[in-house]
From TrEMBL:
Name recorded for this polypeptide: Endolytic murein transglycosylase
Organism lineage string: Bacteria, Bacillati, Bacillota, Bacilli, Bacillales
Residue intervals passing through the bilayer: 27-50
A Pfam family reported for this protein in Swiss-Prot or TrEMBL: YceG
Organism: Thalassobacillus devorans
Site (Important for catalytic activity): 262
Annotated localization: Cell membrane
Top-level lineage group: Bacteria
Family that this chain belongs to: Belongs to the transglycosylase MltG family.
Length: 378
């Protein structure tokens, strides 16, 4: 090869290597630029995501949700409760944020939180044990109340503008009930649609105190707040239903309503629940007077023998097993008694005018107790 050809070949190789190096530099520049854009984009997206997660779920929300924070709850547990109730957007962000700000010593208790509250507002409330927003008014619904009484209680408030009749019309509306059953599928089952049920939502409006943050809450808002409270208190006990042979939530609520109306104290509620289960197991009628009064549709100080003949699926002197549905709402410890009865061999009980309850294993013993503590007082 001549010197001239060798020189040309060398120049071509140098030129080619230069072009390759230039291409590599361009590729590296493009990759670095892309990575930089990605990193910057990710940083901005991350910042916006975290910023959004710290903001209220719905700044315009006015309705509140009742949240129960159990004693000894960890920050992770509290984050889970808040997320489950749709009060925060992200559990992990809540945990990291409270840890970064060294927020701790959250107080156990029952809170009324709204989706319009920021994480700072939520944590401040949890630290002090106080709700930041004060309710405009509150209504206490005692235990043992029938739905017609509950309707009257809300209608009588100066902060509502509907009648008891309008409340009951909405509570009995088939289309509205269908929507509620979709909203609360584990709580409201087809049992409430039985044609012989007097009021579909009887027993399902929980005895509690309800806070409201606006004038004239709708009937729907009130009913749904009460159903949510019932669900919060009933569903945790679902695993215990099968152990007792109670097939449905409806039956559990029905049993709780009977215990509520029969037993004056928490101790007696568990004992009476045990009696009821003993009678169910023995295929005996429950024979509880409050179901007769509900069947009659009126209050009486004393149930007469002729009253026991009332023809009704609620009358437990005439039907075996549980009545067709609840006869009132109930206290939480009545529900606990229904699902955690006291075991015994008692098959009968009788209560005197002072509310003292006497228990018997046999019918003869029951008659003696009745004669001693009831008939002697008349």
């Amino acid at each position: 090869m001549s010197d001239s050809n060798f020189k040309d070949l060398h120049q071509k190789q140098v030129k080619k290597r230069g072009e390759e190096a230039s291409t590599v530099r361009k590729v590296v520049a493009i990759v670095l630029t892309t990575l930089l854009v990605v990193f910057i984009g990710a940083g901005i997206a991350g910042y916006l995501y975290i910023k959004s997660a710290l903001e209220p779920v719905d700044p315009e929300a006015e309705e509140t949700t009742t949240v129960e924070i159990p004693l000894g709850s960890s920050t992770s547990h509290i984050a889970g409760i808040l997320k489950e109730n749709d009060l925060i957007k992200n559990e992990m962000i809540f945990r990291f944020y409270t840890k970064f700000k060294n927020e701790s010593d959250f107080q156990a208790g029952e809170y009324q939180f709204a989706q319009s509250m920021s994480i700072d507002q939520l944590t401040e409330s949890l630290k002090t044990g106080k709700v930041i927003r004060e309710p405009l008014f509150r209504v206490t619904v005692p235990e043992g109340r029938q739905i017609t009484q509950i309707a009257e209680r809300f209608a009588d408030s100066e902060h509502t503008d509907f009648t008891a009749e309008e409340f009951m019309k909405k509570a009995d509306d088939p289309e509205y009930l269908e929507g509620l059953m979709e909203q609360y599928p584990e709580l409201l089952t087809e049992d409430i649609n039985n044609k012989d049920i007097r009021y579909p939502l009887e027993g399902y409006l929980f005895a509690s105190t309800y806070d409201f943050f606006e004038e004239n809450p709708s009937i729907e808002e009130i009913i749904e707040n009460m159903l949510a409270r019932t669900q919060e208190n009933v569903l945790p006990y679902l695993p215990e239903l099968e152990e007792l042979g109670i097939s449905t939530v409806h039956d559990a609520i029905t049993m709780a309503s009977l215990i509520e109306n029969e037993a004056p104290t928490e101790e007696d509620r568990k004992k009476i629940a045990g009696v009821f289960y003993n009678r169910l197991e023995a295929d005996m009628p429950l024979q509880t007077d409050p179901t007769v009064l509900y069947a009659l549709g009126k209050h009486k100080d004393r149930v007469l023998n002729k009253d026991l003949e009332v023809d009704s699926p609620y009358n437990t002197y005439q039907v075996k097993g549980l009545p067709i549905g609840p006869i009132s709402n109930f206290n939480k410890n009545s529900l606990e008694a229904a699902l955690q009865p006291e075991e015994s061999d008692y098959m009968y009980f009788v209560a005197n005018s002072e509310g003292e309850v006497y228990y018997a294993e046999t019918y003869d013993e029951h008659l003696e107790l009745k004669k001693e503590h009831i008939d002697s007082q008349r």
